[in-house]
Specification:
The complex is a heterodimer. Chain A is α+β, with helices and mostly antiparallel strands. In chain A, 22% of the residues lie in helices and 34% in strands. Chain A has a domain at 18-29 and 65-146: Thiol Ester Dehydrase, Chain A, CATH 3.10.129.10. In chain B, strands 1-3-4-5-2 form a five-stranded antiparallel beta sheet. The chains are: A alpha+beta, B alpha+beta.
Amino acid sequence: MNDVQQASTLPSFDTLAVGDVVAEAIFPLTRDSLVRYAGASGDFNPIHYRDDVAASVGLPGVLAHGMLTMGIAVQPVVEWAGDPARVVDYQVRFTRPVVVDADSGAEVAVTAKIGQLDAETSTARIDLTATFDGATVLGKAQALVSLA
Amino acid sequence: MNPEIQGRVYPPAEPYLVGREKVREFARAVFATNPINHDPDAARRAGHSDIVAPTTFPVVVQEAALAQLLADDEAGIDFTRVVHGEQRFSYSRPIVAGDELTAQLTVTSVRSLGGNDMVTASTQITDAAGAHVVTATSALVVRGDDA
């Protein structure tokens, strides 16, 4: 994880350019992470913590909740923006599961890049790439950040 | 599933009171380390009335509304075949601890693609004053018999 920024540090809109990488982070997930997310979110689907259930429905292993992957992938953007309230819109497609091994866990790597800038509203569209095991796991992952 | 549920609006779910410790618990679970997600003083210094919920927190509030759709016999959604396809959150203002939120779900589209059905549900989340806070949109893929 990156260092926590000072609360409410605002990136200067004028210094930004499309294509800039504004944040990168690697998130190590373990089975503990999945149990913690299950409790926090209320999603207790056992495919997210039981190998036997995951296998019985034909999955390659216990999977991270898609919403957990979505939830962590935006955090580098929040760190960069300095205030979670600046993320005004966030969308993803779930394209590939993250298989979390009981021993070794799983690493999700996130890169956040400026996809579009709207000077009129001082809004930046941040395009996220989230990869696990060398392949992207989210599609059209975009966060709109208000820097007004 | 039944394509005629497109346009269906479910009754508002019971109000959800956003607790500070729930926000912190959720923040820890999604690796949200920003002080504004955890520390009321940091949140107030940034101009918020209390700690701000992580971006994806509305999924917790949306859950009761989504449960209505999944339990609707007329919709005919086999829960064991549901895969989460897409998710979006569009905010008018951030969620802060202390908010009392009401979620109301509308089925915005039902379509078939490649033997599967895709249902898109839009949940309007409003505060105690009735003002819009965030719209949570979920696209669920219901796998067909052969998929």
